[in-house]
# Entry
Amino acid sequence: MSNVDQRQYAAAFQRNCQPILTVLKQELPQQGIVLEIASGTGEHAAFFASQLPHLGWLPSDQTHPQLTSISAWRHQTDAANLYQPIAVDICQPNWSEIVVQALDHYGLERSEIVAIININMIHIAPWQATEGLMAGSARLLSPQGLLYLYGPFIQADQPTAPSNLAFDQSLRNRNPKWGIRTLEEVNHLAAQNGLSLKKTVAMPANNLSVIWQPPASTSLSKQPIGQDKD
# Structure
């Protein structure tokens, strides 16, 4: 057996884990499953699962190196409520079916997903990823669930910090499909998928926590999973 430590590290984790945890403690229910999309290194999954033992935590990511790191953090943390990560590409149609299959493997129901969490992703991914995230989340979440996004946003009614403007330009130089999204365009996309804005919370380093929920009367999550249009 290899003794090589396969855990990856992200500098941003140390800066944002506690502020995010503070918001999650206020917003998450007392039981259920939290699905984390694009878990990256796996540090957030390991930390939040250990700090929120009353919730199951299901991490996911798209690529093998990240999935390996998440598994390594899971092994190191040894939190009983942290599930093995699943491979999910939210740019692919019907990605929510993969989640349902994973839940079934653990003997869980889709209705047990009480939150979907996504941290620092939509600005380093094509817009298609945000479209897929919104559409799939609307179908997976129960009417009482919530979608939580953390990261930088540009807000039309507020001046953008110079650091965020520089960051946005650097992202677009690396990949024209990347860039800091406006809160208005993301919220408009959420609304198109039946998700209503519940709260925005100012966070350190010019970031935001943004929370949406599916209105009980119009939730798209009541539609069959097989009818995803993402």
